Amino acid sequence: FYRPTDKGAVLQGRRDHFGGNLSLTYDDPVMLVRGWRHHLFDEWGRPYLDAYNNVPHVGHAHPRIRAVAADQLGRMNSNTRYLHPAQTAFAEKLLSKLPDHLQVCFFVNSGTEANELALRLARAHTGVRGMVTPDHGYHGNTTGAIDISAYKFNKPGGPGQPDWVELVEVADDYRGSFRRDDPERARKFADLVDPAIAALEEKGHGVAGFIAETFPSVGGQIIPPKGYLPAVYEKIRAAGGICIADEVQTGLGRLGEYYFGFEHQGALPDIVVLGKPIGNGHPLGVLVTTREIADSFARGPEFFSTFGGSTLSCRIGDEVLDIVDDEGLQDNARLMGNRLIEGLRRIESDFACVGDVRGMGLFLGVELVNSDGSEGTEICGYVKNRMRDHRILIGSEGPRDNILKIRPPLTIEAEDVDMILWALRDVLAEVGDKAPAPVCDHGHHHHHGCGCC
Ligand code: PMP
């Protein structure tokens, strides 16, 4: 085992034994060994404010999660071919948070698996295979999930776009084709689905469905204009397809105002996909759908996942939902999100390199721009790394990696929000005189963490 203080040895072990295309965050990576609520601690016990991680939804090292896991592991942990009240209890609690037409749960082990399953359900129900999805989307790391993730299949060395997938422009009303000054922008973005549907039909693939992150995250923390999704869903359904909402990033109260992102849009999906926060770090994904779609799928071979819906997973998922309610975390996300966004808007008006501030609750993006308004990729890398020097963990996102991503656990408090805002002000004040980040032979920025530079 490595000495806990020897970060260099851990870094070397990783270079020796891990794949090179697993990136590491920050020029000076952090080693984190303890956590508590929205705080993390490194090998020297130094604290970091976690303003990035959405997986520890109810906070790191939550005592109720630890207690329920210890209790269940001390009893038994088995699969869904045996009866256990924890499985139906979890399903019922989750369904109580969702619209009435969603009645059936499938438990799996990750967001990827839930999206992979969503593809199978869409095909089983419609009998065809074509999919429409917004550009720059991400739905997971398996062959099937990559096929519907433009963020991956279009990268150099990626598998490319499948013939049965049609991309539509993401509904980004800051940088996209239709901007915020256009009151018709939701409809205009939705209309882009028409030629995509026509193309799938012409190629003989038909329309199995539409899949989108309700608020695109890797696409750049985008809040589509209200009414976008219902308009898209109407077109997809008219073409015989089903509508899948990937709520991995947006679900379970993060948005403050809404428990799920589709509520903001006034849309009713046929399938909702949940991941990351639902297990608070324990691997758990859930697909929720209608009885009709589940019945179509049930006409095929048995669906079974060894670990999906294990007794332990169901007890943890159930506990996460209770903690969100018991601790008023959705409300906290709304209050702290408002405090953050108000502070960020003041920063936006003080710094020319802040082009846009957007978000809802604790799902926020700060788009950094160069003096000509183009994507401020270098600035973003610099700011992210300097925030890390201030021991505040935030991320970056977007097709050109120029959008700061702020997405803390829902436990964050007012003084933490103010700390983020003050540190960001200090760092942005440095931006004027910084040199561009160095680039290696492969064109990677130093902070890419590829190990080649
Ligand atoms: N969908 C979205 C929107 C995601 O952000 C992610 C993970 N970043 C996934 C799916 C895949 O989830 P997992 O990594 O748990 O398989």
Report on this structure.
It is globular, with a radius of gyration of 22 Å. Helix content is 38%, strand content 15%. Helix 3 packs parallel to helix 12 (311-326), helix 7 runs parallel beside helix 9 (228-238) and helix 13 packs parallel to helix 15. It has helices at 7-17, 63-75, 85-96, 111-126, 143-147, 150-153, 185-191, 193-202, 228-238, 261-265, 291-298, 311-326, 329-350, 377-389, 414-430, and strands at residues 32-36, 39-42, 47-50, 104-108, 131-134, 165-168, 209-213, 242-246, 271-274, 285-289, 354-360, 363-368, 392-393, 395-397, 403-406. The protein starts with 6 loop residues before the first helix and ends in a 23-residue tail after the last helix. Strands 4-10-9-8-7-5-6 form a 7-stranded mixed β-sheet, sandwiched between helices. A 4-stranded mixed β-sheet has the order 1-2-3-13. Strands 11-12-15-14 form a 4-stranded antiparallel β-sheet, with helices on one face. The protein folds into 2 domains: 64-326, Aspartate Aminotransferase, domain 2; 328-433, Aspartate Aminotransferase, domain 1 (Alpha-Beta Complex). The protein is α/β, with parallel strands linked by helices. Strand 14 (395-397) and strand 15 (403-406) form a beta hairpin. 4'-deoxy-4'-aminopyridoxal-5'-phosphate is lined by residues 110-112, 115, 138-141, 213, 217, 246, 248-249, 275-276. This is Aminotransferase class III-fold pyridoxal phosphate-dependent enzyme. Belongs to the class-III pyridoxal-phosphate-dependent aminotransferase family. One of its GO terms (molecular function) is transaminase activity.
